[in-house]
From TrEMBL:
Record Gene3D superfamilies: Cytidine Deaminase, domain 2
Regions annotated as coiled coil: none
Family according to the record: Belongs to the cytidine and deoxycytidylate deaminase family.
Protein's GO biological process: nucleobase-containing small molecule metabolic process; pyrimidine-containing compound metabolic process
Protein's recorded name: Cytidine deaminase
């Protein structure tokens, strides 16, 4: 038996004003999208904004359903639409902001496992990293240089 250590490097910004200008603008678009979330069951609102290399920004928010598992996260709403609309564009940066409708969320909220897997698919397909920035409603912003840093031991097409 041998031990394997897996390391990822993430970067933490004090708040949105600390981000590079293009990223804070992207995060503001994610915040706009968050306000449009349809989340009557969880009251947890998530917004995503995805910058493409053609200059387009695709936004998404979580869309819930009375049949709970039929709902969809903000990240996948945005990323699936982006690839449906612009299949030839590369995805450069994704900004995420999330918060409860009932209390202020100040801790950075990372993308769920299913969304990491979905984003990974496009990162692998385009052979270029997607930067991920995530935050609560206020406070610190965490940056990952690549989705791969958020999903060690990812399952991908090479196993099929
Ligand atoms: N949610 C997202 O939109 N993205 C995530 O990465 C985590 C969770 C949504 C799904 C559901 O509508 C609500 O947040 C509570 O889980």
């Amino acid at each position: 038996m041998k031990e394997i250590k897996i390391e990822s490097t993430l970067y933490v910004y004090d708040d949105i004003t600390d981000l590079p200008e293009d990223v804070s603008a992207l995060m503001l678009k994610a915040a706009e999208a968050r306000k449009k979330a349809y989340a009557p069951y969880s009251n947890f609102l998530v917004g995503a904004a995805l910058l493409l290399d053609n200059g387009e920004v695709i936004t998404g928010s979580n869309q819930e359903n009375a049949a709970y598992p039929s709902g969809m996260c903000a990240e996948r709403t945005a990323i699936y639409y982006a690839n449906a609309k612009y299949p030839d564009a590369k995805m450069l940066k994704m900004a995420l902001t999330a918060g409860s409708a009932t209390k202020l969320t100040t801790e950075p909220i990372p993308p769920c496992g299913a969304c990491r897997q979905a984003i990974a698919e496009y990162e692998i397909m385009q052979e270029a990293p997607i930067e991920i920035y995530f935050m609560g409603e206020k406070g610190k912003v965490v940056k990952s240089n690549s989705l791969a840093d958020l999903l060690p031991l990812m399952f991908d097409k090479s196993f099929l």
